[in-house]
Automatic annotation (TrEMBL):
It comes from the Bacteria. This is Peptidase M10.
Length: 219
């Protein structure tokens, strides 16, 4: 989910995503690092989008704050499509970071994933914008892996955890730090199909509005 704004005079298309982080493993530094990582990765292609007859420079506007006092009601009843709410913990019930659905605005980050690679948040952000994992997970010979390829993807040796490992065995799959947002990832967002209102705004995705508890206490 996100809020899009088409600014015709300056020929810019903004995607606004403002994160609120909570949880025992969250803090202001992690919040800033996540925002910086997503901003860097998704603006790296320096993409432009054709909307009707004109071209617009695409800008991802990512902000993040740490809010340890966040109340469940603030998540449940939020009506602002640019707001995202993520818990950050050492423990995840799925053992990985996750979003609450494709095109969602809530989820949970496992702190070990965030520390392991800067692409974790950027990958999950792609899901929030409506992107799925690609169906073909053997991309040998196809170059740099796009941002939406998951762990376990078969890739060229120099993109593996261990370049000397055989494909598919331990060490012989995609090391997520090599993922990049490619123009193809941007194209899959289909931003040219958005319907903007009279003020130039449109919404990607929908509200999931799930406040996550600390699942460690349920173990």
């Amino acid at each position: 989910m996100a809020l899009a704004q088409l600014i015709k005079p300056s020929r810019q298309l903004f995607i606004y995503s403002h994160f609120y982080f909570y949880g025992d493993a969250a803090d202001a530094t992690i919040a800033k690092n996540i925002a910086d990582d997503i901003t860097c990765h998704w603006n790296e292609p320096n993409a432009s989008i054709q909307y009707k007859q004109d071209w617009y420079k695409l800008v991802f506007d990512i902000k993040a704050v740490y809010n340890p006092q966040l109340k469940p009601e603030e998540v449940w009843y939020n009506t602002d499509p640019k707001l995202f709410f993520f818990r950050i913990e050492e423990y995840s019930p799925l053992d990985v970071s996750f979003v609450d659905g494709i095109g969602s605005n809530t989820g949970l980050f496992k702190v070990a994933n965030l520390l392991q690679t800067s692409t974790t948040a950027a990958h999950e952000y792609g899901h929030m914008l409506g992107l799925y994992h690609p169906k073909n997970l053997d991309i040998r010979g196809k170059g740099i892996p796009g941002m939406m390829y998951p762990r376990g993807t078969i890739c060229d040796p120099h993109f593996q955890y261990d370049p000397n490992a055989a494909a598919g065995v331990t060490g012989g799959t995609l090391d997520p730090r090599h993922r990049k947002v490619l123009l193809h990832d941007i194209e899959l967002l289909k931003l040219h199909k958005l319907r903007f209102n009279e003020k130039g705004f449109a919404v990607l995705g929908d509200f999931t509005s799930i406040y996550h508890p600390n699942y460690q206490s349920f173990k």
